[in-house]
Structure formats: structure tokens, C-alpha cells
């Protein structure tokens, strides 16, 4: 019964999943953070149709999961300084949520918390505890840990032209995992130091040159970094929680003008809650040229047409729409190794369709059409279709070969010879032949 | 003429002949019945099930043939075998067996007998064993007479050496191949005797059937030329030999090339060159004979002889040269392993790893042939006494097959028929001598009866159904005597000296020999009868106990005599069939490939058709490597499940840990840098306990075998009942695989290969994280220093 109900719940979550308008979000908010101070961010989310539920880290209800099934589509974890959580929030359970397609927005801080060890699983390398990001540039009246960070416009996640955002918190270094999606980089002149005073910054450089902790400085460090898992669930780690606050959203920049915090937070939330850059393969289709049915198997050297239909999610209408914007899609025809790797261009005039025609290799075996498109920020597109490629049937080989003429000549001459011999034998002198025959016997 | 016991004298020769032939027919029918019945132990003890490994593939192929027709079968490409390479089944099998079953199946269905294809397959081997008995009867009749033929038929009907490959359910090529072998040989002897192109053609037709049915056809391909060559060298070249051989070779070779798997091999490989060479030699000799018949100059004949020899040499060196140039494929490894028994172990471990390719142990000769093995040399010696062309054939066959049977266990099968024939000739000679009521007397009236001894049943003057044949035979014999006067007489003298105590002398020596009285007769006859009875008892016992196990289902006897069936294999295969995706690839050692395909219907990486050594070595490497090295191999081949056989709990010795060294060896053959056999030994000992070598302990096979094994023993020291060793209480752990299913007696264990971690981590790290282990702090990569500087 329990199994049945959980299956039902799964079914329900699956069906409701794609509608952002009715998505449920659990916000785990540390009591020390004032909810009112985040009203712009949370209000914006509610305005966009998210159904927010608030809960303190140590509360036991509402539970994130029941019977292993997530109750929420997304979870915001704004408890950067909390050392102990209720039982259902552990690094393991959060990874479990991700494999169940629940998305996470997590704020970190310079403090050592359970989330520090979680970040390590995502190949984010955090500096030692209590080493916040410090920058002296640009000159400003705010403390040196409150930094206006210029937003790079190269990330597809962000709206182009966002003004600098205020940031306070810890940076992190990015590991080698290609699944990381850097969203906000630290300013080039910033560094992480284990005290808010400036005294030992020189000592830090010397120490790092001798080897040791390494230098926590420069624009290679990330401040806000996304991560897209193999099942396309998304998680964002923000180095500090304050950048989402109303205070920072309204604080004027040193250069004048409003900061980009509000817009930045909205963009990040839109990405992590699967509103943006969400693609899927609707269908793939393969056939011989000139045929309309999908064959069970191909013959070697067949001309094959492969079509993929891709659509993107449109959060405004909550629908999937054909998407032809990918220009670097590739198709592989693989048996252990790719035998053919070709680009799969969009078909002009038919939205969402990508098509290529190629000749099957002269090699029989079980091949796979492999579509594997992984770009930072976008949903991964993966598709694998297995088809056997068989040698020609016995009646598909060419009938007459010029190379086989010796055989044909042999067969024809033997037949003719036999015919002649039989004719001569029958017409010839019977007695003489008999005599000879008996002699041999 | 004094007689030891009275014979009815008021019977007309016609009645005797008719009765004898009726009795023969009844005897043959009974022998066929016995041959079929004794092969049904497996069905009665277990059920109507396909046995062992290869038969499962044959069965699967036959199902395709029966359900989709011949052309679909012919073009069948099996994408589930040898994943992802696939297998062109139509071009890589001998289709004779499946075609035979298909014909029988369609015939029965045309007669409105809706027999299941499985039952056709299960009962094909017993059915053909009856035909084998008949073919052996015909063959032996050509050697001696009908009574020897009946004995030979009875022997081959129940001899364990043949039953081992033809019990019900043992649906393998050998099931029909032995019948074809015997019938081809019979037709060859017949063709040779009569010099008949018709019989030569029949030989060729059955040779074609044999080629289509069994890879062992190469035995015929080389036996017949060898026989022809020996006859040629003995100066017994005749027109009959020429006609028989030429018609067999021409038609047989052309037709054998129609089998796709054989293709152009008959003209391109060394195994077939002997037949071609002898064919050419016969043409030359025949031409020489023709010329000699027309030209009577002695010098010319000498010239001719030289020409013949030089032509032969040119032909021989031509073949050698072509082989050297690569036009003719050299001998294959399997062929070399027949001459050098250590060859396979050194160079082709995959061949050496098959248990039936091991040299034969002496006791198995007795086990498989019982007292026939003692009569066998006597029978061969008897062949020397008459030494007609066909006897030379039996002698060659005996020598060659004895050697091969000593080299490889499975070739015991080719020895068995000739043993039966020889033993029947010997035993029937013994019977003839001692059943003959004629008492030796001073009068010399034995010269007439010596030629053809009377049969046991009629016990009178031998029936002469075909007098013309007999005279022909005599004529032949005289001819032969002229031809090999010296050799034959010397040999027969030698032989008669050796065997004078056992058999009555048949040569025309004047010394009076014979058997006096009933007592001597009874002593020998009762002894022979006793031997025959023991033979029957032995055959029945061996058949029911040793050769009737399907090996898919095992049985054990409990202390109270009850029988326990161990059905783990089918349990596991059924689990796979019911619980896994249809395209889930299962990796196992190649032994189980056919069974997985047949019973679980899942794609396999390797199977018993061991055509691709590298692919097998890949599996061997995966099994013998540590998990983290094996995992990429598994993922590359889309493996979803790994199946292993583990006998440690129940004491099933044919398990994968015992086969493991072969996996290591085969993998070492391809990756000598990564896998080394000595690493799996601890000071020269193969151990699985706490003394096991690190490579052994880390190998995937070891881990999968003993994973959670210790839990069964509740904290006590676990014991592996096959190896008799105590394995560590702290068992191995698995990171990249997880246990999916283990059967009741732990014989089959199935593991599921984990998918990639959702966060893209190494599965070992992900596992440690899930178990709550603290991770070592990572530091940013050193390239970051350069940025700072």
C-alpha cells in the first residue's frame, strides 16, 4: 500500500514537475536571517507563481521527503551559518534530492558547516574556515568584505547587461568537473584572507608561493556557481547569502546607480528552478533514405537518415516549443568506438528538427546512434538508439562479377564438353567404346 | 564329419536364409530400441530439457529455423551475441543439425503431428543413434559378415563413449555426425569394393551432409585420402579406387563448398590439401597405368615411374610453396594442438581452457569402452589376417583415431566406432570358432569352411544370398594375394602365431587345429557371454550415472537416498528473463553465453562460439582486474549485469574461481603488461583464503564470488567447500557493482553494474560519501599559484 501511494506521489510529482507556475519550494531559512530582509527575492518568486513554504533548519516539519519521495520541487537552503540541522537535512539527503530531480539553491558562508562538506562533493573547493573574500577595489565606504562584483555577460544564464552586484561571503575554487557552471566570478583584485584586517595579506602570498594552501585570489575563484547533475537537476552554490537580501538589492553602487542584485538573484533562481535553458529531445527517428518506416536493422552501406526533434521549455507559457538554436549538435554512429561522427544541423524551415544523412559503415555489428550534447548551463541532451547493422542477405549480393569469369568459363566449358562428349558417345562406334570400357574395368 | 552338437538337418537353405534375415531384422530393431531407450535416462531422471552449453545455441537456432523458415535462418544475424560485434549466424555455423531438425519438424507437422520443436531437438540424438547402429552394421558387414555387423551395431548402440555425446537432450552436432561418419565410410568402402561411381557419389552426398553438420568432417577429408594413398603405396591401385576416389572428391568437394562456413576452405587451407594431393596423384597414376597398358616397353615404364615420382614431388612442393606464399592458409592452431599437446597451452589458452580438449586419462578409455578396448587390438590384428582394401581402412582408422583419442578427450568419439567394429570382428571370430559344431578330425575337410565361418544363429553352412558377389570376392582376394603376396603372408603368419590359442587357424597350413568337445566351447562361450553381460551392466550404469546429467540441472543424493535437484541455473536465468530490461547486456565467462542467450534471452558479450579471442580476453581482463579498472570496460560494452558461477557454498567444483586462471591467462595473452598470471598466486599456490595474493583479492571475480559470503556463517570462519580453504571473515566490498540476485544455493550470482554517479563523481568516492565517511580536504590545483605570482 505504501509502495502504491509513493508510486502515486511520484506520478503526481512527475506530472506537476513541468509547470513552474505551480512549483512548490521549500525555503530553509535560518532564524537569524530576517525574512523581511529577503522580501524582494522571495516576493519575486511568489509573484512568478512559486509556492513557498518556510521552515527553520532545526524544524522537523514540514519534511522534505516522505518515504524517499521529495515533497517539493525545489529547495532553497538559506542557513549558511547553521551548524546543526534537523535529521532530514544531511549532505547525503541533499544529494539524494538531486537524484530525484529536486533543485537546490544553497548559500554558503566562511563558517565551517555541514554544507562545507557537501560542496566538496560538487567539486567545489572551499578555502579554510573564516576566510572571507576581501577586495580593496574600487574605493568605497563599505567594509572591504562587502564587494561590488562586476557580472560577466558571457554566461547564458544571466540577462546581458546586469550592473555589478554586492557580495559578501566566501569564494570557492572550481574543481575539474565539467558539470560545474560558473555564474559569478570573483573580481581579479580580490582574495580570501583569514582575517578582515589587511595585515597578513603579504604573508599569504609568500606562504602560497612556498606551497601550502595555495593562493585564494583572483578571478579564477567562483562566487556563485551552478552545477547540473547527470539527471539534469540543478544546484547553485552562492558564496554568501546577503547578496539575495533587500539590503544589498537597494544599496547604491560606488559608481552610482542601483546594483544588479535583484535581477541577478532572479536570473539565478530562474535557472536553478528549471525555467531557463531547459531542452529536451522529443523524438529521434532513423530510416533508410526513401523509406518511411523505421527498419529493424540496417544493411552495411545503407544510406541512413537520422532526425532528432528538440524542444525548449518556455517558462512564460509553460510549454515546450521546438528549438532550432543549437548549431553544434553532433551525431555519432558507434560500435565500441564512433565509426561515424558527423554534425547534425538544424533543418531550415522545420523548427526543432535536426537531420543528417550518412552512409552506414561497411562493418556489421550492433551500432548505436549516439546524441550527446552537453553545454554549460543547458540541459544535457543525451540519446542512444541501438540498431544492428547486418551484412547483405544472400540475394543482395551482385549476381555477376567480372572477377568471376574464370569460374563461369569453367562451368560453361565443362557443360559444353559434357554435352559434346555425350553426343559423341551416343553417336559414335558402340562396339569399340564398349571394349575399351571393359578393359578399364 | 563329427559335430559337437547336433544341428537340425531337415531345413532347406532357403528357410535358413529367410529365418536368418528375419532374425537379423528383429535383432537390428531390438538394437535400435535399446540404443534409443538407454539414451532416455536423462529425460526420465530429469525432464525433456536441452543439455549443457552448445546444444542451447543449436536449439535456439533451430527455433529460428522452425519459426521463420530456412532463408531467414540462412541470413540470421544475431545482434545479441558477442555484443556489440554481433554474429553472422548463417555464415558461422554448420547448419546440418538444425536443417535436419527443421525437416523432421516440418514433416511431422505436415502429418498433423504437432510436436514441439524442443522435443524434436531433445530426441534427435537418440533417434540418430539407432541409425548409427544400422550404419555400423552395414560397415562391419563389409568387413566380415552379418553376425559381426550385428555385434558391432549392438556395441555402438550402448557403448558409453558414444552415449556421452548422444543422450536425449544432448542436441549437438555430434548427435548426427557419428551416423554420417559411419555411413560415409560405409559408402566409401562400398564404392571402393565395387568401383562404382554411384556409390562414390553417395559417399560424396553423405560427405556433404557431414560437412554441413560437423566441423569434424576434416577427419573424413583426411581419412579417405590416407586410405587411398596407403593402397597406392601398397601397389593396390585399381580402376575401382580411381573411380571411387575421383567421384567422391570431385562431387564431395564441390558440394562441401556450398556450405557458407566452409566456403573456399577446401582449396585454400592445408587441412584439405591431402585430399587434393591424393586426387592429383591418382590422376597421374591412372594416366601412367593407361599409358603402360598401351606401351609395353620396360624402359618407358621406368621413365614413367620417374615422371610419376617427380610430378608428385612437384605437386607436393607446389603446395608447400603456395602455403609459404600465403595462397593456402597454413594449419590452424587447433590442428597443431593435435600434434603437440603442449602447443595450445602455450599459444592458444582459449583452446586449452576447454575441458574436452584435455588429453584423455587412461581410466576413461575403460569407462567409455569397457571390454571393447581389450578386444580392439585383437580385432585390428584380425584385419591384418585377411587384409583386403577395407581392412586396411579399418587399420588406418584404428591407428589414427587411437592417437587422436589419446590427445583430446572429445575425440574419443571418433575412436568409438572403430573400436566397436574391431571388437565385433574379434568377438564374432571367437564366436564363430567356438559355436562351429565341427569337431576337428584327421580328415582334412576344413579347407572349404575356412573361408566364411557360419553365424551363431543359423549354425549351419553359411547362407549364400549372392553367389556372384562371393565369387567376385574370391576373385578380388586372389588378385590381392598376387599384389601383396609377400607382405600379406608374412603378416598373417605372424598374426596366426600370436592368436593361435584364441582363434582357429584359417590359413591353409596343414596343422590340424580345432575345438574338441562341449566343455571347452562352453567355457569360452560362457566367459564371452559373461563379458557381454558385464558390458551391458557397465554401459547402463555409466549412462545413467555419468552421462545423463543435463548439467543445467544438478542433482545430489541425500543421506536417505532421496534425490535433491539443484536448479540454480534456471532460477538465475529465469530471474534475468523476468526482471531485467530486454536489451540489458549480461557479461559472464564464455561458458555460459549460450545458456544466457537460450534461457534468459539477453545479449551476452561472449559465448561458446569462441571466435573472437580479443573479446574473450576483454571479459577475462574485466574479471581479473580491480573494480576501478574493470568498470570502464564494463561501461564501454554497455554491460548491465555480470553473472558468475560460485560453488563455494554447495561444493560445485565447476565454478568460475576454478576457471579463473584461464581468464587470467587469456587476458594475459592480449594484455601482457597489465595482467600477469604469477600475480594471482601466493608463492606458487592458488589460494582464496587470507593468504590470497593482492591481485587475487582485488580482482572483480574474487570480490563478486565472496561478497557477503561470510554473512552466511554468522561470524564464524567461512569455509569455501570447493577449495577447502577458510576465507577471511571480513569479506570484500564492492563500489562499482551491486548485488542483484543470488540463487538458492549461491551457485549463480548476478551483479548489477552501477550507473554513473549523479554528480559525476568516482563511484568509490560516492559510496564513501553515502556511508558518511569524511572526505579528505582537497586543495585547489597548483596552476592557481601561477596566477598569484
UniProtKB/TrEMBL annotation, chain A:
<dbReference type="InterPro" id="IPR005013">
    <property type="entry name" value="DDOST_48_kDa_subunit"/>
</dbReference>
<protein>
    <recommendedName>
        <fullName>Dolichyl-diphosphooligosaccharide--protein glycosyltransferase subunit WBP1</fullName>
    </recommendedName>
</protein>
<dbReference type="Pfam" id="PF03345">
    <property type="entry name" value="OST48_N"/>
</dbReference>
<keyword id="KW-0472">Membrane</keyword>
<keyword id="KW-0732">Signal</keyword>
<dbReference type="InterPro" id="IPR055459">
    <property type="entry name" value="OST48_MD"/>
</dbReference>
<dbReference type="GO" id="GO:0008250">
    <property type="term" value="C:oligosaccharyltransferase complex"/>
</dbReference>
<dbReference type="Pfam" id="PF23358">
    <property type="entry name" value="OST48_MD"/>
</dbReference>
<comment type="pathway">
    <text>Protein modification; protein glycosylation.</text>
</comment>
<keyword id="KW-0256">Endoplasmic reticulum</keyword>
<comment type="function">
    <text>Subunit of the oligosaccharyl transferase (OST) complex that catalyzes the initial transfer of a defined glycan (Glc(3)Man(9)GlcNAc(2) in eukaryotes) from the lipid carrier dolichol-pyrophosphate to an asparagine residue within an Asn-X-Ser/Thr consensus motif in nascent polypeptide chains, the first step in protein N-glycosylation. N-glycosylation occurs cotranslationally and the complex associates with the Sec61 complex at the channel-forming translocon complex that mediates protein translocation across the endoplasmic reticulum (ER).</text>
</comment>
<feature type="signal peptide">
    <location>
        <begin position="1"/>
        <end position="22"/>
    </location>
</feature>
<dbReference type="InterPro" id="IPR055457">
    <property type="entry name" value="OST48_N"/>
</dbReference>
<dbReference type="GO" id="GO:0018279">
    <property type="term" value="P:protein N-linked glycosylation via asparagine"/>
</dbReference>
<keyword id="KW-0812">Transmembrane</keyword>
<comment type="similarity">
    <text>Belongs to the DDOST 48 kDa subunit family.</text>
</comment>
<feature type="transmembrane region" description="Helical">
    <location>
        <begin position="405"/>
        <end position="427"/>
    </location>
</feature>
<comment type="subunit">
    <text>Component of the oligosaccharyltransferase (OST) complex.</text>
</comment>
<feature type="domain" description="OST48 N-terminal">
    <location>
        <begin position="25"/>
        <end position="272"/>
    </location>
</feature>
<keyword id="KW-1133">Transmembrane helix</keyword>
<feature type="domain" description="OST48 middle">
    <location>
        <begin position="286"/>
        <end position="427"/>
    </location>
</feature>
From TrEMBL, chain B:
<feature type="transmembrane region" description="Helical">
    <location>
        <begin position="241"/>
        <end position="261"/>
    </location>
</feature>
<feature type="transmembrane region" description="Helical">
    <location>
        <begin position="175"/>
        <end position="191"/>
    </location>
</feature>
<comment type="function">
    <text>Catalytic subunit of the oligosaccharyl transferase (OST) complex that catalyzes the initial transfer of a defined glycan (Glc(3)Man(9)GlcNAc(2) in eukaryotes) from the lipid carrier dolichol-pyrophosphate to an asparagine residue within an Asn-X-Ser/Thr consensus motif in nascent polypeptide chains, the first step in protein N-glycosylation. N-glycosylation occurs cotranslationally and the complex associates with the Sec61 complex at the channel-forming translocon complex that mediates protein translocation across the endoplasmic reticulum (ER).</text>
</comment>
<feature type="transmembrane region" description="Helical">
    <location>
        <begin position="391"/>
        <end position="409"/>
    </location>
</feature>
<dbReference type="Pfam" id="PF02516">
    <property type="entry name" value="STT3"/>
</dbReference>
<feature type="transmembrane region" description="Helical">
    <location>
        <begin position="21"/>
        <end position="44"/>
    </location>
</feature>
<dbReference type="GO" id="GO:0043687">
    <property type="term" value="P:post-translational protein modification"/>
</dbReference>
<feature type="transmembrane region" description="Helical">
    <location>
        <begin position="303"/>
        <end position="324"/>
    </location>
</feature>
<dbReference type="GO" id="GO:0046872">
    <property type="term" value="F:metal ion binding"/>
</dbReference>
<keyword id="KW-0812">Transmembrane</keyword>
<keyword id="KW-0472">Membrane</keyword>
<feature type="transmembrane region" description="Helical">
    <location>
        <begin position="365"/>
        <end position="384"/>
    </location>
</feature>
<feature type="transmembrane region" description="Helical">
    <location>
        <begin position="120"/>
        <end position="140"/>
    </location>
</feature>
<keyword id="KW-1133">Transmembrane helix</keyword>
<dbReference type="GO" id="GO:0004579">
    <property type="term" value="F:dolichyl-diphosphooligosaccharide-protein glycotransferase activity"/>
</dbReference>
<feature type="transmembrane region" description="Helical">
    <location>
        <begin position="273"/>
        <end position="291"/>
    </location>
</feature>
<feature type="domain" description="Oligosaccharyl transferase STT3 N-terminal">
    <location>
        <begin position="23"/>
        <end position="423"/>
    </location>
</feature>
<keyword id="KW-0464">Manganese</keyword>
<feature type="domain" description="STT3/PglB/AglB core">
    <location>
        <begin position="583"/>
        <end position="632"/>
    </location>
</feature>
<feature type="transmembrane region" description="Helical">
    <location>
        <begin position="88"/>
        <end position="108"/>
    </location>
</feature>
<feature type="region of interest" description="Disordered">
    <location>
        <begin position="438"/>
        <end position="485"/>
    </location>
</feature>
<dbReference type="Pfam" id="PF21436">
    <property type="entry name" value="STT3-PglB_core"/>
</dbReference>
